[in-house]
């Protein structure tokens, strides 16, 4: 089971830098970078909700399930 994180695509669409998003939602740039690259084992709903609020999107716009 593979979950693909499309945060980089959404940031580009919204013309926002990772640094700016990290500051607005209150997490470190390093943690946001790990999330963007998909190298995290989980994400808090609170963090996901904050990202969606700032980027004006739905969780499904950021995460995609890919069948093996």
From TrEMBL:
Signal peptide: none annotated. Residues 14-62 form the HTH cro/C1-type domain. InterPro entries: Cro/C1-type_HTH, Lambda_DNA-bd_dom_sf. One of its GO terms (molecular function) is DNA binding. Pfam families: HTH_26 (PF13443). PANTHER family: DNA-BINDING PROTEIN, DNA-BINDING PROTEIN-RELATED. This is Cro/Cl family transcriptional regulator.
